[in-house]
Design brief:
There is one protein chain. It contains three helices and four strands; from the N terminus they run H-H-H-E-E-E-E. With about 100 residues, it is of the alpha+beta class. The strands form two sheets. A two-stranded antiparallel ribbon has the order 1-2. Strands 3-4 form a two-stranded antiparallel ribbon. Strand 1 and strand 2 form a beta hairpin. The longest helix has 14 residues. It is flat, with a radius of gyration of 28 Å.
Length: about 100
Amino acid sequence: MATDYDTPRKTDDDVDSDSLEELKARRNDKSASAVDVDEFEAADGLELPGADLSNEELAVRVLPKQQDEFTCMSCFLVHHRSQLAREKNGQPICRDCD
């Protein structure tokens, strides 16, 4: 549920002044407007065009790690040496993980 942070907040005095009938009416309105849809059931009949990729092969040229690159031991991504933040126990750590 989205929250509007610009609306004024109720104080304890405002909450106490709400009548029981108003609270019951608000609760009934909220429950009536909520729609419970199971996303998995809705997606069962959905088929994307050209989605059969079983005969496809991925052809990507993979380069080995270069001299000016390192593998972060926290996120296990290969970064350029300029992204090295520190070494923890002799293991390189990138700026994003530091």
